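Q: what sequence does this backbone want?
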């Protein structure tokens, strides 16, 4: 059946109504704060040795302002993710620049990395709909700094070209794009210019410098500009390359000291998601491109993932593997508006050292219910990703918390990381439409035998995580950092 196009990266949200205010900076049962030692994990915000989970609620109320937005960090531990161990940050939190304002949608985009090289992961928050002075929807980027007590304080990264584009911060990526051993930050907007903020960040001064990358995005004809960014070393030279996606395709730029340069145009399709991992362990990162609304005549009507293997020359556009619900071994049926590939995330879920790929389809119908959503786990191996042994999961799967309901959008966001330290990555699924857009997050543990086990599954809604729900569509679980 025909359905409206799903929101693009939360820049369009649902209707508004009166709400209860969110307390900025709420801290609940933070583990290990007194004795935390930095682990070096890019997403270990409190340095206790576990990967943490950063989730956006871009429609949340903060300081009484509707859709001001907030970010929730749930801290990892030996017992895994818990709804109780969390911290909420908004622009009303102490030390965070700016102010919570209606319709800013703080947290629309997220990325992480140790930007100031202190051993604690830092969280980068994009707020592309924030008005900056008289610049409507100019957008802003904020770095929230990791510490032994978790995220604390923040620094604004100023837009170098405010008159040349809008929605600065609608796409983000962290990587060493200049090859100097320091984490850089790439920021996209509605323009064709991607700005590389150079590593050597400080809390008081921001980046050590900046480089402008003029991409092949046709910003004038397609004003949404750079919609997705991802970092990966596709040519194996030790310097991260950057993948840039827009309505006119996905481009790969090779990292260099003077700034990235074009290496390849991977696809002409409109990508909805990007993930990077070395799926075949050949020493080169591979690029997975989710294309949830393919062109007529494409390899799948309901969406697909194109995987481009890395090599000494980088990504080869002529060498790709296409995976969809039409691929042998992948459960389900390829149907229009499934949005297979709406979200992708990579990590070693089954503990065999080969990264696997989680694929979300927020528009998958189940029974007579529309847009229920579904997630698949595709296995990595010596030959790369395959449909063989693929696992399909939804809220109707035995052991998965919740129920399959229309408009839940289960799988509209996915995330893969090892939150309990058992050397198997866990799968986190966002359902921003749960309970009339209150939103929910489900965490399923990795398993050596079946990729995912429902034993020990955890699920919590926005209100459980401290995000007030009074009909304002907070969409908790809309975006995860690192996905």
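A:
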């Amino acid at each position: 059946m025909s359905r409206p196009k799903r929101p693009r990266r939360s820049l369009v949200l649902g209707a508004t109504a009166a709400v209860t205010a969110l307390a900025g900076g709420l801290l609940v049962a933070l583990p290990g704060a007194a004795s935390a030692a930095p682990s070096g994990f890019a997403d270990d915000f409190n340095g206790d040795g576990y990967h943490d989970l950063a989730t956006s609620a871009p429609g949340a109320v903060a300081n009484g302002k509707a859709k001001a937005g907030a970010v929730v960090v749930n801290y990892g531990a030996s017992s895994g993710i818990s709804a109780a161990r969390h911290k909420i940050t908004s622009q009303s939190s102490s030390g965070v620049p700016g102010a919570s304002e209606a319709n800013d949608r703080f947290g629309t985009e997220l990325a992480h990395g140790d930007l100031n090289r202190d051993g604690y992961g830092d969280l980068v928050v994009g707020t592309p709909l924030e008005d900056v002075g008289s610049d409507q929807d100019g957008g802003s980027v904020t770095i929230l700094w990791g510490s032994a007590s978790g995220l604390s304080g923040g620094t604004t990264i100023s837009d170098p070209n405010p008159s040349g584009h809008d929605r600065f911060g609608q796409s983000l990526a962290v990587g060493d794009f200049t090859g100097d051993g320091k984490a850089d930050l790439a920021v996209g907007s509605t323009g064709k210019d991607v700005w590389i903020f150079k590593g050597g960040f400080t809390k008081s001064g921001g980046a050590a410098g900046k480089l402008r990358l003029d991409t092949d995005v046709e910003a004038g004809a397609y004003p949404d500009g750079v919609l997705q960014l991802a970092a990966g070393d596709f040519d194996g030279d030790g310097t991260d390359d950057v993948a840039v996606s827009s309505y006119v395709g996905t481009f790969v730029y090779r990292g260099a000291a003077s700034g990235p340069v074009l290496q390849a145009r991977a696809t002409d399709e409109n990508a909805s998601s990007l993930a990077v991992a070395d799926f075949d362990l050949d020493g080169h990162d591979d690029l997975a491109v989710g294309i949830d609304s393919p062109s007529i005549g494409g390899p799948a009507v309901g969406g697909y993932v194109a995987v481009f293997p890395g090599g000494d020359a980088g990504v080869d556009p002529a060498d790709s593997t296409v995976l969809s619900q039409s691929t042998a071994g992948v459960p389900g049926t390829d149907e229009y508006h499934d949005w297979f590939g709406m979200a992708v995330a990579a990590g070693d879920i089954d503990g065999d050292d080969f990264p696997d790929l989680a694929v979300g389809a927020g528009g998958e119908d189940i029974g007579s219910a529309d847009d229920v959503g579904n997630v698949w786990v595709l296995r990595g191996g010596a030959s790369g990703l395959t449909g063989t042994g693929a696992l399909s999961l939804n809220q109707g799967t035995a052991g998965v918390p919740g129920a399959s309901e229309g408009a839940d959008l289960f799988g509209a966001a996915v995330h893969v990381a090892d939150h309990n330290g058992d050397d198997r990555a866990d799968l986190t699924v966002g359902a921003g439409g749960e309970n009339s857009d209150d939103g929910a997050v489900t965490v399923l543990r990795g398993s050596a035998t079946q990729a995912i086990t429902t034993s020990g599954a955890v699920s919590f809604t926005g209100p459980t995580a401290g995000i007030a729900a009074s009909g304002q569509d907070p969409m908790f679980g809309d975006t995860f950092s690192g996905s």
